Amino acid sequence: xxxxxxxxxxxxxxxxxxxxxxxxxxxxxxxxxxxxxxxxxxxxxxxxxxxxxxxxxxxxxxxxxxxxxxxxxxxxxxxxxxxxxxxxxxxxxxxxxxxxxxxxxxxxxxxxxxxxxxxxxxxxxxxxxxxxxxxxxxxxxxxxxxxxxxxxxxxxxxxxxxxxxxxxxxxxxxxxxxxxxxxxxxxxxxxxxxxxxxxxxxxxx
Length: 205
Hints:
By secondary structure, the protein is an all-alpha fold. It has eleven helices and no strands. The chain has one domain: Tetracycline Repressor, domain 2, CATH 1.10.357.10.
């Protein structure tokens, strides 16, 4: 076993060119995040994003051939993946259904309080439908499936009394969380108030 471990090769370090490409790509994404958060999707332009990154349009299209559509989709999916990881970790831990739902709500509210990310993740623009079709709803689907399974187990144990569809309940809760995210981003409601409201919703299931 020791000999086998010694024979395993570590991944080759990235070349300077590869590191530079990754840095440029990240700089374009970060610039796009700022522009989208400030202007929304409809008013954001490739020219503005490239200028914010200190790059040319040619450079931007080299990295993101579909332009702002691809940039927005990738940024949105980064948040999706972060949320999926957080929610999966929550449901991997011991706890009751109520505590888990509140933890998921809190995780989403934390994202909503980030000035740039929160605004990006809460943008609702019909022009985004095509851009986001491949990634929209991924995190919501994971949340709803995990909640529904957890609620079903809680009902089986007697902790949940309602006979309503656990999937329907989960879908409604996720929808409420998404609305809460938008309200928190717009500073219409405090995150603590949203958590208290969610607690009230799930306490009598």
